[in-house]
From TrEMBL:
Keywords: Activator, DNA-binding, Transcription, Transcription regulation. The keyword Transcription applies. GO terms for molecular function: DNA binding; DNA-binding transcription factor activity. Pfam families: HTH_1, LysR_substrate. PROSITE patterns: HTH_LYSR (PS50931). SUPFAM superfamilies: Periplasmic binding protein-like II, Winged helix' DNA-binding domain. Belongs to the LysR transcriptional regulatory family. This is Transcriptional regulator, LysR-family. The lineage of its organism: Bacteria, Bacillati, Actinomycetota, Actinomycetes, Mycobacteriales. Residues 1-58 form the HTH lysR-type domain. It comes from Corynebacterium glyciniphilum AJ 3170.
Length: 297
């Protein structure tokens, strides 16, 4: 059994297609099929059920996959540790970033990181804070930038608080409140809202604030992209509660401070179980970048 065979199996399992898997692994399809068949013969089981149009994992293949992934991860870590011992860092680092991150200029940091460690492959994923925390705990992610309600710090991972911020109300230029700069949460009673999906950390702080104020609200629009949220606001369809720093200066909307409104904390989180050299270097660089950004403000 060879590591390359395991990589081929994982590629086919992810793509459910031998042609696309072969393209991903930069090998001709016939050679990949031959190598996987040889592995199946060695194991004495069929990993994939395949026809000319369809490829699926068998029960044996599904059972084989987690250990195959763990073996590849261990091999990659061994290579990274060996390189680190000579002063070089290599391997793969996976980072998750919420759509409303403002505490770190992530693209700029990744650019500097790539220049400093060109042998490290960077994987950048979008999603929600709870997904990232679970991924870090399971070993599927190295570093993440999170946004969580005050009083609900990430658990089961190492973390550093980056910034606390009060969310602002965002309304259209023609909204009834557009002539004001400061409001209370009760002033938004009866409004339709656009917010992140229900039960997501990005929405939790607003739900908590309304509940604590004894108010209910109608979230008529759900989205994961702030640019879409702002467009819904701009059209006069709803009100949003967002970080001020996440709103472009040319958004053509009106921003109001909310005296008793929601607040959130952004965190940098990473694995607390034997982080690799690449992850450690990225955490250090992101921490420094955050410090530099807020020192200039």
């Amino acid at each position: 059994m060879e590591l390359q065979q395991l990589r081929y199996v994982l590629a086919v399992a992810e793509t459910r297609n031998f042609t696309r898997a072969a393209e991903r692994c930069h090998i001709v399809q016939s050679a990949m099929s031959h190598r996987i068949k040889a592995l199946e013969h060695e194991l004495g089981v069929q990993l994939f059920a395949r026809t000319s149009r369809r490829v699926e994992l068998t029960d044996a293949g599904a059972a084989f996959l987690p250990s195959a992934q763990a073996s590849l991860d261990a091999a990659d870590r061994a290579a990274a540790d060996a390189a680190a011992a000579t002063g070089r860092i290599r391997g793969t680092v996976t980072i998750g970033v919420i759509p409303t991150v403002t505490a770190i200029d992530v693209p700029a940091v990744l650019g500097r990181f790539h220049q400093a460690h060109p042998a490290v492959k960077i994987r950048l994923l979008g999603g929600s804070s709870d997904e990232f925390i679970a991924a870090i705990r399971s070993g599927g992610m190295d570093v993440a930038v999170l946004g969580l309600p005050a009083g609900q710090p990430p658990r089961g991972v190492r973390s550093q608080e980056l910034v606390r911020e009060d969310l602002v109300a965002v309304v259209s230029a023609t909204h009834r409140l557009a002539g004001r700069d400061n409001i209370a949460l009760a002033d938004l009673d009866g409004e339709a809202f656009v917010d992140f999906p229900v039960d997501s950390p990005g929405r939790a702080q607003s739900d908590v604030a309304f509940r604590d104020a004894g108010l209910t609200r109608d979230v008529a629009f759900e989205a994961v992209d702030t640019s879409f949220m702002l467009e819904v606001v701009r059209q006069g369809l709803a009100v949003a509660l967002l970080s001020r720093d996440a709103i472009p200066e040319d958004a053509d909307v009106h921003i109001l401070d909310v005296a008793d409104g929601p607040s959130r904390i952004q965190y940098l989180a990473w694995s607390d179980f034997n982080p690799g050299p690449a992850a450690t270097a990225l955490v250090e660089m992101m921490t420094d970048a955050h410090h530099d950004l807020f020192t200039r403000r």
